[in-house]
Design a protein that fits this description.
The chain has a domain of about 100 residues. The chain is mainly α. Strand 1 and strand 2 form a beta hairpin. The chain has a two-stranded antiparallel ribbon with strand order 1-2. Helices cover about 55% and strands about 10% of the residues. Helix 4 packs antiparallel against helix 5.
Length: about 140
């Protein structure tokens, strides 16, 4: 099976933190960060590594809750995904297309948890959640 030439694996220092990182990368907070510091097309290891995160034991319960939300989010992504066949240079390829906009409510819950870790005010987290909303959701979903 051919893989994307830009796809890289990223590893977490523990299985528990894996879900926290997945939650961060799928959050509106990270989307905002990536919009400021990335090219808004490619997501590269350096951008992920430069996102400020330091493990702090005082957020253990928050981390555990994020893990639960990420499991729910991944299930929701799969539930809303569509398989499509597309023509490629080497023939027909089946791709799985995901629609994160349909899981915005779960992403918002992850952002609420990240707001605790990053000491964001309600006004700040509301701004992050609604950042570029017209491009991230359909009108009837916003």
């Amino acid at each position: 099976m051919d893989r994307s030439s830009t796809l890289e694996e990223i590893h977490a220092s523990s299985p528990d933190l894996k879900y926290v990182f997945i939650g961060i990368i799928n959050s509106s907070l990270f989307f905002w960060f990536w919009s400021l510091y990335g090219d808004e097309f490619h997501l590269v290891r350096e951008e992920i590594a430069s996102f400020p995160f330091v493990y702090d034991k005082k957020y253990k319960v928050v981390y555990e809750t994020i893990q639960e939300k990420v499991r729910t989010l991944m299930h929701d992504y799969k539930k809303n995904a569509i398989l499509k066949e597309v023509r490629a240079a080497k023939g027909t390829v089946t791709i799985q297309e995901f629609y994160p906009r349909q899981s915005k409510g779960i992403i918002d819950e992850i952002d609420d948890l990240l707001a605790i870790m990053y000491n964001l005010s309600k006004k700040e987290v509301d701004y992050i959640k609604s950042y570029d909303i017209e491009f991230r959701t359909d009108e009837d979903e916003a």
